Amino acid sequence: MLKKKLMIPAAMLAAAGLAITGCSSDDAGSGDAGSGELKIDVPDVPMMEELGENEGEVNIVAWSGFVEDGWVKPFEEQTGCTVNRRVAGTSDEMVTLMRTGEYDLVSASGDASLRLIVGGDVQPINQELIPNFGDDIVEGMQGQVYDTLNGKSYGVPIGRGANILQYNTDVVTETPDSWSVVWEEDSPYAGKIIGYDAPIYIADAAIYLMHTQPDLGITNPYALDETQLKAAVDLLKDQNKRVSEYWADPVAQITSFTNGNTVVGTSWEVLRKLSEDDRLEGTLPKEGSTGWSDAWMLSAQSKNPNCAYQWMDYTSGAEVNGAIAMNFGMAPANAAFCELNDEAKAHCETFKATDEEYYSQVWFWTTPIEQCIDGRTDVQCTNFQQWTEAWTTVKG
């Protein structure tokens, strides 16, 4: 089983300040990070109305584990479309590569999606041309603010996961029900706490502040005005005194836990499984958490859109989508996979594939932008450039 950052250590997420104007819906601000009805000014990129003949190839930028021989070769035989893969290690790299115009598709995470949409780098998706995008695609991965704007969908869901609180049961003997064990000054695990090494980790601090300092008025951890951002950064700077290390490389994170250097902190369910360490458990605390959701996005400059649509449809089918999810270590987008066999059912249970109550507590990564996606219009929110600059001050 592979995870996107297991193959290549993740670097700092890219700075991307997006100046956006307009108004957002009153729905943005729920646990699923919005309803996809955000109204903003974006380039008017046309959507394909019908399919034509396959071009003979498709060029894809993807996370490790998304484009593998086990499902690529059958696709090539069925369609005549040769798949050319480029593995990317970070969302920043994906955005950069897509802007060259040399790639047709990208497996974008929420921290890259809005950058691509607002930059006019991707085109709306015609779901009618993707038969496998049907009733079996889990509801919680459709119409989300990170890939659906102005009533148009720009992403075909692939899979999702939560950033859980992981702990060593030899030291943390009672299941923690709150993130307080990593944020509060009196944490008994000071010096043994691990944090995520990226500007998007600011959102984790914001979620904790939503519950502990409600007067700040934070209703969406990716929609922070300057005062709210400062509060989140102050919390992170305070936590820094008790952090043993920050992780970007999942292998290093696993090693830190198994060696005992770390006993509690942010993780992914797949990392806990890969560690094969029976002492490690994970939970989703009462405050909720951040998470990630990936989707195929089609380049506005695609030279091979017909093969690209064929790929998006093929990989949305239950068997192939499930194969990607198992290889990658995430919940699949196609719920029908969960009924295929006992192994598929077990995987779906582990990653809470169809548990919308669970995922309603997860705020999926969304690029911070100047327009407040929580619905506020009387204030300007901070963008990812400002988050990146702020993050550099946290670690000193």
What does it look like?
The chain is globular and about 65 Å long. Helix 3 runs parallel beside helix 4 (110-118), helix 7 (226-240) runs parallel beside helix 14 (384-394) and helix 8 (250-258) crosses helix 9. It folds into two domains: 4-160 and 291-364, Periplasmic binding protein-like II (D-Maltodextrin-Binding Protein, domain 2), CATH 3.40.190; 163-289, D-Maltodextrin-Binding Protein, domain 2 (3-Layer(aba) Sandwich). The strands form three sheets. Strands 3, 4, 5, 6, 9, 10, 11, 12, 13, 14, 15 and 16 form a twelve-stranded mixed sheet that branches. Strands 1-2 form a two-stranded antiparallel ribbon. A two-stranded antiparallel sheet has the order 7-8. The chain has 396 residues and is an alpha/beta fold. It has helices at residues 4-7, 69-79, 91-98, 110-118, 180-183, 202-212, 226-240, 250-258, 269-275, 305-314, 318-328, 342-350, 356-359, 384-394, and strands at 22-23, 39-40, 57-62, 82-87, 105-109, 122-123, 148-149, 152-153, 156-168, 193-196, 243-247, 264-268, 280-283, 289-299, 331-332, 362-364. The longest helix is centred in the middle third of the chain and has 15 residues, at 226-240.
